[in-house]
């Protein structure tokens, strides 16, 4: 699963016009941003600003980052553009996404789930939650290669 994710990210950087060792370097920096964001969210943000507020900020921010990345991909990557500013903003939103996701959502989701259930059922609730998360990840990893390599026609209007 991790190898596919890393391969897709390097492929995205190649589509953005970055080649050679730069995509691997950006991938390593992206992972460091994720690690620092997890530590920031777990140590500073979660208890200081409240779990719900930070989690909602994370949902809104990651949605905005993904929307911006999708728009930039449509107008700069899929058209084969050489506009360095547009492609650079594509890389910026990939990094901004991981900062918001790691800081506001990643570490907190496990705490929120464990606090939702009463003490008697907490271990069962967390186990069911993790099983559902792993099943969803397995489904995504299973269908992602098929959907990205399909030769289906474009959606009208795009």
Walk me through the structure.
With 158 residues, the chain is mainly α. It has a domain at 2-104. It is 82% helix and 0% strand. It has five helices and no strands. Helix 2 (22-49) runs antiparallel to helix 3 and helix 3 (51-77) runs antiparallel to helix 4 (84-116). The radius of gyration is 18 Å and the shape is globular. The model has no long low-confidence stretch (mean pLDDT 82).
Write the layout of secondary structure elements.
Elements: H1 2-15, H2 22-49, H3 51-77, H4 84-116, H5 122-148
Features:
single chain, 158 residues, mainly alpha, 5 helices, globular
Beta strand %: under 5%
Individual helix count: 5
- Secondary-structure element series: HHHHH
Radius of gyration: 18 Å
Helix content: over 70%
The end-to-end span amounts to 30 Å
Low-confidence stretches: none
The gross shape turns out to be globular
Average pLDDT, all residues: 82
Taking the sheet with the most strands, its summary is: none
Number of strands: 0
Query: Which structural class matches the secondary elements?
Result: mainly alpha
